[in-house]
Amino acid sequence: MFLHEKKITGEYDMKKIAFVTGSRADYGIMRRYLNLLNNDEDINLKILVTGALLSETYGNQVELIYQDGFDIAAEIKVNLDSSSNRSVLHTMAETLDGFAEHFSKNKYDLLIILGDRYEMLSVATAAAMHRIPILHIHGGEATYGNYDEFIRHAITKMSLYHFTATEEYRRRVIQLGEDPNKVFYLGALGAENCMYINEENVSELVKKLPQRNYFVVLFHPETLTKLSTLYQINELLSAISCFKNYNFVFLGSNADTDSNVIRSTVKKFVEENENTLYFENLHTNAYHYLLKNSICLIGNSSSGIIEAPSLDVLTVNIGDRQKGRVRGNSVIDVKCFKEDIVKALNKVLNIHSNQKITNPYYKENTALCYYEKTKTIISNIEKDTLYPKVFFDLIKNDSGEEYYE
């Protein structure tokens, strides 16, 4: 029988794969990889949406997914309140309940989860309890200044397959007891994606900004720190106030604890300073265009470490939120104090533009490699899920050193 005849008669079994997304960031990172999966006639791809993508506060960006033509199988709305850890835990409980209900009625051959967002921990828990195999992307990383650190590793332990961004992260996932044959170093999607900018998705307002005359500012809360969020954002804004001859473009903070503090403080600052501009959300292509044509990225976003180097853009990385991540030579690390930030910005302004930037997260054809490896995974998934997942123990050599084969 031909392939299309099998589909018509119901004899052809398409694999049902779901990707769950809760923010503009994780969806933007995954778009090119998802397109490859979606265009495969052997795969029935579903998108499950939750979190900030369904929140008016964060721009209700679910429309971007509809515009891209993906099949959204569920919109699981939760109350996003980032004012305290207690409120975040309530959001996690809501997310767990919503996805428990969804997975009880919908079976998937594979669920894809990116990263370390707290709502993704709830999704992973619900999926694992329903024995849905999980493919985890961006495991093995370290971010010591945020609760993402332990959330990421917890998701790793509930997942059967892993795509890591560096070889070091692959080794760390294996160290957590994961089977080396199911852990694959394929690079970071974001490091490749940002090099493909469709300017049709870039607004005229962004295009009209004076190139190389503005800084992009993207600052998120540190949730495992002794410094208050308000203190940190005020130190950053005090430093920025010393550069009146330059423009500053602020982007909205994500939905972590105390992000409301950052958002309200920044918005007030923008209202009072003519050389500033604020975007709550931007299309992924617009963000990359904005970043590519900037002087540098200021803040503590992972995109400054993973994506900015591919655009030949420097990053002033503030504080400990990204502490522990592998980084290239384009990242300038500073403490969250006004004087240190001012020195770093002056350093950026004095660096010659011919400096060669390296990106340890870039690997050629990453999206294609993700797609091809996913195809291999789903072809073996029945065999891989025949028995419960076991803990992989490292082997000790004669000297007592641990290693794996």
Outline the structure in words.
By secondary structure, the protein is α/β, with parallel strands linked by helices. Helix content is 40%, strand content 17%. The protein is built from 15 helices and 15 strands. The chain has helices at 3-9, 24-38, 62-67, 85-105, 118-129, 148-158, 167-175, 189-193, 204-207, 229-240, 259-272, 284-292, 303-306, 338-350, 366-384, and strands spanning 15-21, 43-50, 72-76, 110-114, 134-137, 161-164, 183-185, 214-218, 247-251, 276-279, 296-299, 314-318, 331-334, 395-396, 402-403. It has a seven-stranded parallel beta sheet with strand order 3-2-1-4-5-6-7, with helices on both faces. A six-stranded parallel beta sheet has the order 10-9-8-11-12-13, with helices on one face. A two-stranded antiparallel ribbon has the order 14-15. Helix 2 crosses helix 15 (366-384) and helix 5 packs parallel to helix 6 (148-158). The longest helix has 21 residues, at 85-105. It is globular and about 65 Å long. The chain starts with a helix and ends with a strand.
Structural class: alpha/beta
Low-confidence stretches: 1-11
What radius of gyration results from the CA coordinates? 22 Å
* Spatial ordering of strands, largest sheet: 3-2-1-4-5-6-7
Give structural attributes.
405 residues; seven-stranded parallel beta sheet; six-stranded parallel beta sheet; 15 helices; 15 strands; 40% helix; globular; disordered N terminus
Please specify the SSE layout and strand pairing.
Blueprint (H helix, E strand, L loop, with lengths): L2 H7 L5 E7 L2 H15 L4 E8 L11 H6 L4 E5 L8 H21 L4 E5 L3 H12 L4 E4 L10 H11 L2 E4 L2 H9 L7 E3 L3 H5 L10 H4 L6 E5 L10 H12 L6 E5 L7 H14 L3 E4 L4 H9 L3 E4 L3 H4 L7 E5 L12 E4 L3 H13 L15 H19 L10 E2 L5 E2 L2
Parallel strand pairs: 1-2, 1-4, 2-3, 4-5, 5-6, 6-7, 8-9, 8-11, 9-10, 11-12, 12-13
Antiparallel strand pairs: 14-15
